C-alpha cells in the first residue's frame, strides 16, 4: 500500500510519496509535478488539472478555479463575495445559504458545491498517483493553511471522503514545511532548541511561523498570516496596464473577462521575469481586442511602487510573528522561504529587514509542503517503518466553551484553549448538573470566518441524585489530529464515586452548577490510524440495585450540530462521484476510439493516394476504398459525432479488413529486397570460407573434405533458391501478392549461415582439446613405472 502527501494549493497541487528510502514528488499525466487546481466541464466529461488549464481561455464559463477559498463558507460571506470577483464561473446561493457552482455538464445545467469540486480534483490526484506508483492509493495526509477554521477543515475532510481518500491527518502547511526541514537534519541540538522562521507566500496567502527544533523533535511556537499572495500582485499590475490601455488605445477591458484573463496571464509571466531582471521588461499582446495590438513596459521598481500597500501587509505579518512568538532576534537561527511568491525580490528584502538574517533556500520552494505531508503519512501508516520524529503542533485561535441549563448564569463560559495551544490534545471540563444541558464551543478571538461558533452539543439523560443533588459531569474537549475542536465525550460520575470525592470542589452554592473545573487530559499523540469519528456513544445505566456494581463513569449520549455534511449525504455524493468517474473513463475510451478511426482514415487515404500503398492496389479497388474512407470521414463529422464506442470500433474493424491485406502486400515488397541482400551476403560468406579452405588457411585446417563438399552443396542449393525466387520477385506485379515473403528469405539465410558457423566453431573445440599422437601412446609401463615395478619385486 502506498502513502502520499498532498499539497492542495489555490493555484496548483503537488503530490509526494515516500519511496526507496526517500521522498519523491510524483509526476502527473502531463509529466509535470505541478497539477493546476482547475476543474472543467466539456460536453460529456470532466477535464481536470493541466488539460483543464489548457482549455481555460475557450471554456472559462465551465472551468472552476479558486474553489479552495470557498470551502466551508456561506454565500453571503464577505470573503466569498470578494472571491467571486476573481472567478468567471457562475455562482449561485443555495437554499441553505451555501454555494452552488453552476456549469453545463452532460447537456444540462448542473450545480456543484465547492466540496464536490474539490473532491473531483482530489480524485484526479489519486488516479495520477496510482498510475505513477502502479499501486492503489488510499491513505494520505492533506496539507491545509494553518488559519483554516473548523468549518473549512471539515469541508476539506468531507471532500476527501467523497474522493475515496482516507485522510490520516490534516496537516498545517507550515508544520509540513517544518517537518520537511527538520526530519533530515542530523545536527540538531539536544538541549537548546534551534529556532527557525518559515515564510510561505503562495498564490493567495502568506503564512509565517516560528518553530523550535531539537534532536528528533519539532515544536511549533507561533504563527501569523494574511491573505495576500502572488495573484494580488498580478491584479495590481494588470489594473495599471488596463488603465494605460484605456487611455492609449481607447479600449476597456474591466468588463471583458476573456481579455482580463489574458492580461493577467501575460502579467504573471512579466512578474516572474522581474524576479531575475532589474531592467525594463516589455509587455506585448497581439490582437488583444479585435485587431488591436497593445504594448507597454514596466521596471521592477515601478512594480514595487504600485504594490506598496501589499508589501506593507507582508511586513506587518512578519512583525506580528515576532510579537506572537516572543522570540528575540538574536535567538533566531535562520529564516527559510518557500512558495512561489517569495521569489519576488521586494518580499525577500522585507524578510531580511525584519529578521536581520539572509534568507535561506534549503527547501524546495514548490514541493516542501507535499514532501512534509508524505513524511507525516509514512510516519502514521502501519505499512511503513520510519525513523521516530516527534511533532508538536499548535491551535491557531483561542477557543471557549459556554454552557446553559438549569442554574446557569450569564458569563458561564471558560477559555478552554488559548491561542497557540499545543495540539493534538484534550482537556476535561467538570460541570455540576442534574438535568440535560447545552454546550457551545466557539472561537473567542477574531477569525477569518463570519461565524465564530464551532458547534453545539446537548448532553442528555442526566438525572438529579436521590436528594436533588447535582452530578459531576466531565466533558472532554479535544483538538484532534485534523485540528478540529470537538467534544469527544461526556461522562457522569456514579454515586459511590461522588461520595468519595473531596470537598475541595464544593465552593459554590448547592443550588447552582459549578462554574467548571478545567483539567488537562492526556496529551494526544498521533495514532497509527487516524479516526475522525465523533459519533456519540451511549452506555446503558444500570438500575439502582446494581448501582454499586456499575462502572466508575458512565458515558452520556450527546446530540450535536457541527459544520460539515451528514453521513448519508456524504455516501450519496461519494456514489455520484464514482458514477462521474466511470462516465469520464467511458467517455475517454469513446473519444480515443473516435480519434483512432479518424486518424486511420487520414493515414490510409494519404498512403493510397501517392503513398507507399499506391502501386500495390488496382485503380478500381483504390477508388472504392477511398470512397469508403470519404464516407466514414463525412459520417464522423455528421451522424458519427457522438456515436458510442462500439460503433467506432466496428467501422475501424471493417476498414482494416479491406486495407490490411494491401498493407501486408506493400510491407512484403518493401522488406524483401533487404532480406535478399542478407541471403546474398550469407552465400558470399560461405563461398569465401570454402575458398580459404582450398587455399590452406590455417583457420580452416580442421575442415574435412566431406565438410567442404557439404558446404559447397549447401551453397549451390541456396544460390539456386535465391536466383529462382529473386526472379519471381522482380517479375511479379506489385498489385498481386508477393511470391515470397521476407521471413522465408531470412530462414534460408539463417540455415546456410548456421551450417557454416557450426563447422567453423568446431575448430575452437579442437584447439582446446589436447592432441593425442603416436608418441604419447605406449603399449607397456613407462620408465618410471618399470623402476617402481622392479623395487616392488625385490621385496618378494
From TrEMBL:
> What GO terms are given for molecular function?
ATP binding; ATP-dependent protein folding chaperone
One Pfam family this sequence matches: HSP70
Q: Output the PANTHER family linked to this UniProt entry.
A: HSC70CB, ISOFORM G, HSC70CB, ISOFORM G-RELATED
Instruction: Provide the taxonomic classification.
Output: Eukaryota, Metazoa, Ecdysozoa, Arthropoda, Hexapoda
Location of the region described as Disordered in the Swiss-Prot/TrEMBL record: 517-550, 771-796
What would be the name of the gene that encodes this protein? LOC119640158
Record's compositionally biased regions (Basic and acidic residues): 537-550
The record ties this protein, via InterPro entries, to: ATPase_NBD (IPR043129), Heat_shock_70_CS (IPR018181), HSP70_C_sf (IPR029048), HSP70_peptide-bd_sf (IPR029047), Hsp_70_fam (IPR013126)
Q: Which family does it belong to?
A: Belongs to the heat shock protein 70 family.
Q: Which UniProt keywords apply?
A: ATP-binding, Nucleotide-binding
Note whether Cytoplasm occurs among the keywords. Answer: no
What is the native source organism of this protein? Glossina fuscipes
| GO cellular component term, pick one | nucleus
What's this protein's name?
A: Heat shock 70 kDa protein 4-like
Amino acid at each position: 500500500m502506498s502513502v502520499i502527501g498532498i499539497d492542495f494549493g489555490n493555484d496548483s497541487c503537488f503530490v509526494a510519496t515516500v519511496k526507496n528510502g526517500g521522498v519523491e514528488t510524483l509526476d502527473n499525466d502531463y509529466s509535470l509535478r505541478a497539477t493546476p487546481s482547475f476543474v472543467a466541464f466539456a460536453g460529456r466529461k470532466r477535464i481536470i488539472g493541466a488539460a483543464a488549464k489548457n482549455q481555460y481561455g475557450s471554456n472559462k464559463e465551465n472551468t472552476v478555479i479558486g474553489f479552495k477559498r470557498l470551502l466551508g463558507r456561506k454565500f453571503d460571506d464577505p470573503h466569498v463575495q470578494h472571491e467571486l470577483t476573481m472567478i468567471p464561473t457562475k455562482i449561485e446561493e443555495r437554499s441553505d445559504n451555501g454555494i452552488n457552482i453552476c456549469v453545463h455538464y452532460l447537456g444540462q445545467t448542473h450545480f456543484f458545491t465547492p466540496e464536490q469540486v474539490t473532491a473531483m480534483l482530489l480524485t484526479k490526484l489519486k488516479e495520477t498517483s496510482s498510475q505513477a506508483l502502479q499501486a492503489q492509493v488510499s491513505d494520505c495526509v492533506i496539507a491545509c493553511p494553518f488559519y483554516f477554521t473548523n468549518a473549512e477543515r471539515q469541508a476539506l475532510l468531507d471532500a476527501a471522503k467523497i474522493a475515496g481518500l482516507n485522510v490520516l491527518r490534516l496537516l498545517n502547511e507550515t508544520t509540513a514545511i517544518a517537518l520537511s526541514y527538520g526530519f533530515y537534519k542530523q545536527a540538531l541540538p539536544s538541549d537548546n532548541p534551534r529556532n527557525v522562521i518559515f515564510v510561505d507566500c503562495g498564490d493567495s496567502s502568506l503564512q509565517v511561523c516560528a518553530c523550535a527544533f531539537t534532536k528528533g523533535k519539532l515544536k511549533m511556537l507561533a504563527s501569523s498570516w494574511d491573505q495576500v499572495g502572488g495573484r494580488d500582485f498580478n491584479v495590481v499590475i494588470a489594473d495599471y496596464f488596463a488603465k494605460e490601455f484605456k487611455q492609449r488605445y481607447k479600449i476597456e477591458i474591466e468588463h471583458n473577462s476573456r481579455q482580463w484573463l489574458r492580461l493577467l496571464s501575460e502579467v504573471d509571466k512579466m512578474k516572474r521575469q522581474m524576479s531575475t531582471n532589474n531592467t525594463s521588461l516589455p509587455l506585448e499582446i497581439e490582437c488583444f481586442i479585435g485587431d488591436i495590438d497593445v504594448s507597454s513596459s514596466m521596471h521592477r521598481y515601478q512594480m514595487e511602487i504600485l504594490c506598496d500597500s501589499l508589501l506593507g501587509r507582508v511586513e506587518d505579518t512578519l512583525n506580528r510573528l515576532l510579537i506572537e512568538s516572543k522570540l528575540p532576534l538574536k535567538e533566531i537561527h535562520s529564516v527559510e522561504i518557500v512558495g512561489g511568491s517569495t521569489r519576488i525580490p521586494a518580499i525577500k528584502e522585507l524578510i531580511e529587514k525584519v529578521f536581520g538574517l539572509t534568507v535561506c533556500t534549503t527547501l524546495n520552494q514548490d514541493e516542501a509542503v507535499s514532501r512534509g505531508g508524505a513524511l507525516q503519512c509514512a510516519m502514521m501508516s502501519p505499512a511503513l517503518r520510519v525513523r521516530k520524529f516527534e511533532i508538536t503542533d499548535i491551535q491557531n485561535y483561542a477557543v471557549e466553551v459556554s454552557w446553559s441549563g438549569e442554574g446557569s448564569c450569564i458569563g458561564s463560559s471558560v477559555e478552554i484553549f488559548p491561542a497557540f495551544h499545543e495540539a493534538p490534545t484534550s482537556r476535561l471540563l467538570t460541570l455540576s448538573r442534574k438535568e440535560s444541558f447545552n454546550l457551545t464551543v466557539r472561537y473567542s478571538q477574531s477569525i477569518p470566518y463570519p461565524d465564530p461558533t464551532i458547534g453545539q452539543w446537548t448532553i442528555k439523560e442526566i438525572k438529579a441524585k436521590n436528594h436533588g443533588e447535582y452530578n459531576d459531569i466531565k466533558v472532554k474537549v479535544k483538538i484532534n489530529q485534523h485540528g478540529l475542536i470537538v467534544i469527544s465525550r461526556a461522562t457522569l460520575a456514579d454515586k459511590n464515586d461522588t461520595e468519595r470525592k473531596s470537598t475541595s470542589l464544593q465552593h459554590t452554592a448547592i443550588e447552582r452548577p459549578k462554574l467548571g473545573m478545567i483539567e488537562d487530559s492526556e496529551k494526544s499523540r498521533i495514532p497509527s490510524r487516524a479516526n475522525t469519528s465523533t459519533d456519540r456513544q451511549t452506555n446503558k445505566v444500570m438500575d439502582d440495585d446494581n448501582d454499586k456494581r456499575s462502572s466508575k463513569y458512565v458515558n452520556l449520549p450527546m446530540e450535536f450540530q457541527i459544520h460539515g455534511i451528514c453521513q448519508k449525504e456524504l455516501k450519496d455524493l461519494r456514489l455520484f462521484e464514482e458514477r462521474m468517474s466511470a462516465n469520464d473513463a467511458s467517455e475517454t475510451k469513446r473519444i480515443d476510439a473516435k480519434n483512432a478511426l479518424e486518424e486511420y482514415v487520414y493515414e490510409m487515404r494519404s498512403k493510397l493516394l501517392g503513398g507507399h500503398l499506391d502501386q500495390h492496389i488496382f485503380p478500381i479497388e483504390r477508388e472504392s476504398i477511398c470512397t469508403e474512407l470519404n464516407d466514414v470521414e463525412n459520417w464522423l463529422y455528421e451522424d458519427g459525432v457522438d456515436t458510442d464506442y462500439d460503433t467506432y470500433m466496428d467501422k475501424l474493424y471493417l476498414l482494416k479488413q479491406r486495407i490490411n491485406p494491401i498493407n501486408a502486400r506493400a510491407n512484403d515488397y518493401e522488406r524483401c529486397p533487404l532480406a535478399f541482400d542478407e541471403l546474398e551476403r550469407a552465400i558470399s560468406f560461405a563461398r569465401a570460407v570454402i575458398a580459404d579452405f582450398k587455399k590452406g588457411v590455417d583457420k580452416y585446417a580442421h575442415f574435412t573434405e566431406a565438410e567442404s563438399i557439404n558446404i559447397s552443396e549447401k551453397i549451390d542449393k541456396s544460390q539456386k533458391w535465391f536466383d529462382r525466387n529473386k526472379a519471381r520477385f522482380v517479375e511479379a506485379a506489385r498489385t498481386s501478392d508477393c511470391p515470397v515473403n521476407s521471413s522465408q528469405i531470412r530462414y534460408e539465410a539463417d540455415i546456410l549461415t548456421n551450417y557454416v558457423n557450426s563447422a567453423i566453431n568446431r575448430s575452437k573445440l579442437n584447439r582446446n582439446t589436447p592432441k593425442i599422437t603416436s608418441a604419447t601412446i605406449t603399449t607397456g609401463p613407462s620408465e618410471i613405472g618399470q623402476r617402481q615395478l622392479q623395487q616392488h619385486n625385490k621385496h618378494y
